[in-house]
């Protein structure tokens, strides 16, 4: 079974690589948006916290769009029937897909982050700390977005608006990531929240996502 | 043996299936017939455990249908294509075999492709295949995944005459191997000993 799971991960990774063009476009959007923000405020001394907030909001938008697109394509009607009939539980497939989306997004973030730092005039001495912080919060963002996507992709259009109920789950990530800047970026304790929040999402998100997919998309 | 007892299904306020009773044994082909909107696909979805009926049960021998039973015993082939357009034909075959827990066997894949397609570049993207070629991929997976129960939703739709003959032969062979085949279709296959079930 482990060999089969490993094979599934490989196939999903290949599938996600093919969808990298979408991710590239989304990160071009981040770079463009941060450039416009940086240029428009070039004469004003702004707090790094504001720049960080911009990064987090852009990341949030990118994650939501990416997860939504992947779920719309990968969990369409005939495909979900095959996944339900698979030897892997739908929860496992959801988990693997989420992890692959995460790796894809993190890689692109790591590649584009120097450019984002430059455009937003962020201090490069915090480069790795902010990257780790973003990587940790991206984990939770992807897992929560999967719940949102599974509800908004439901067959009933009336339920699409229900996906808004997941939005409050994103707020602690934004609050704590800005809070981490306040405390001390070098102090690893401030990162523990993200790890704990991710574990919480890891426990519930695949279950809730697959439940929503089974009940709402069939 | 698959036994459907008093199965009803409602979509909103509309009762789509009403008290369906049907039993299917191994080495049997059941043809579910009915006009458009009569609930053929819904019945198949209930059988495959994709949707919960309003009332009634589906038993496989003494067990109620559950995800473990359906994933172990059923192949469900839907009307629409489910392959990934960006993947090549071979990658799609490998992907869906992995999802079904089958270790890809290159020789068996080659043999099945040669039987179904007169000419096919397996490295071609699925997106670039013709409509008929895309439909045949479902047949290919039927040949490569060994599960006892086949649930086929309109399997002949979009196939040319020769491919229909080939699919009929594949279905007939499966029946001979103690398989259980449930087909919902408008096209009457050239098969003998069919058990027909009319919805409405």
Can you describe this structure?
The complex is a heterodimer of chains A (218) and B (200). With 218 residues, chain A is mainly alpha-helical. Helices cover 78% and strands 0% of the residues of chain A. Chain A has helices spanning 2-18, 20-40, 48-74, 77-84, 90-119, 127-152, 157-160, 171-183, 192-216. In chain A, α1 packs across α5, α5 (90-119) crosses α6 (127-152) and α5 crosses α9 (192-216). The longest helix of chain A is centred in the middle third of the chain and has 30 residues, at 90-119. Chain A is elongated and about 60 Å long. In chain B, 34% of the residues lie in helices and 27% in strands. Chain B has 200 residues and is an alpha/beta fold. Chain B has a five-stranded parallel β-sheet with strand order 6-7-8-3-9, with helices on both faces. In chain B, strands 2-1-4-5 form a four-stranded antiparallel β-sheet, covered by helices on one side. Chain B has helices spanning 40-47, 67-73, 89-99, 106-116, 131-144, 161-176; strands at 2-11, 14-24, 28-33, 55-60, 63-64, 74-77, 149-153, 180-184, 194-198. Chain B has a single domain (2-198), classed as 3-Layer(aba) Sandwich (Rossmann fold). The A-B interface holds A 4, 7-8, 11, 14-15, 18-19, 76-79, 81-89, 93, 218 and B 45, 48-51, 67, 70-72, 74-76, 78-82, 84, 86-87, 91, 94-96, 98-101, 103.
Question: How are the SSEs placed, and which strands pair?
Answer:
The complex is a heterodimer of chains A (218) and B (200).
Chain A: H1 2-18, H2 20-40, H3 48-74, H4 77-84, H5 90-119, H6 127-152, H7 157-160, H8 171-183, H9 192-216
Helix pairs in contact in A: 1-5, 2-3, 2-5, 3-5, 3-6, 3-8, 5-6, 5-9, 6-9
Chain B: E1 2-11, E2 14-24, E3 28-33, H1 40-47, E4 55-60, E5 63-64, H2 67-73, E6 74-77, H3 89-99, H4 106-116, H5 131-144, E7 149-153, H6 161-176, E8 180-184, E9 194-198
Parallel strand pairs in B: 3-8, 3-9, 6-7, 7-8
Antiparallel strand pairs in B: 1-2, 1-4, 4-5
Helix pairs in contact in B: 3-5, 4-5
